[in-house]
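Thread: Newbie trying to understand structure tokens

Hi all, I'm a second-year student working on a class project, and my supervisor (Dr. K.) asked me to get a predicted structure for one chain before our next meeting. I've only ever worked with sequences, so writing a 3D structure as a token string is new to me. If someone could post the tokens and maybe explain what I'm looking at, I'd be very grateful. Here's the chain:
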Amino acid sequence: MSFTRVAPLLFLTTACIPAPEAEQAPPPPRTEVVQPVRAAPAPTPTPAPYPPRPAVFTFAGELEQGGWIRGTVPNGTAQAMLGEEKLAFDGEGRFFAAFDRDSPKTMRLIARLTDGRTIDSPLTVAPRAWDIEHVNVARRPRGSNAAFMRRRQPELDAIWNARLAETGARGWQQDFIWPVSGRISGRFGAQRIYRGEPGSYHSGIDISTGTSGTPYVAPADGVVVLAEDDFSLEGKLLIIDHGQGLNSAFLHSSRLYVGKGDRVTQGQHIGDIGSSGRATGPHLHWSLKWRNARLDPLLFTGPMR
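---
Reply by user tm_fold:
Sure, no problem. This is what the structure looks like when written as tokens:
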């Protein structure tokens, strides 16, 4: 008898082999629309450990074009923004932010938390009725010749770089004071329209005392990031960093009493009023900026007494 060798049959039964568990996708990040709370933050830092904060923005300030807010970010915030602008905040979660002269009516405070949530807090920014003068003449071209720009461009670069400086100053936490008392001869935001073509608006506030040499003081604590004696338009120019991207510029001085790198305190004599640079008479031009936003000094100080 002969036998034929038969190849063994292999039976694969998938039912007997456990299937790998399907990987569970993480839940999508959750965005919560939470109204910010108007509540003044603590004026001075508290010692660590810091008390817990609620998961909501709090703020105080001036919600209008050219205005500002100080506040705290929600508890657990990893990153915060006002619109597209990233916010810096300290160990207590305190921040400063501001609204440009031409800010839109609605802005959003955004916080991305360490637990994956996003807090979205809308702000309503009140529009301003700016001093707009319509004149029936054509705007004169203000082209600059090559010789002037060879001098001017390094000045513009120095101003730009000074405003980027981060010194750790804490003047942004203070209530600002007037640098000098006098007649307000030019208001922030004023603008001329030449036969429908807008000219540049006034970027600061002009204060006139009638004479050159009147002392002016620092409106808040800060660090001097630029002190120049002879800029083509600004004359003697002083820029002070108040921290968190907020800075003051003082133009047309007759004398400066501080230099780059000096720390100044609120009320300290820092310069004298003059008419240096391109000025028609002695006055102090004081302007405020936060990052690229131009701000109204009147909203920091209140009316002059």
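A couple of things are worth pointing out once you decode it. Residues 1-19 have pLDDT under 50 and may be disordered. Residues 36 and 57 are 5 Å apart (CA to CA). Feel free to ask follow-ups in this thread.
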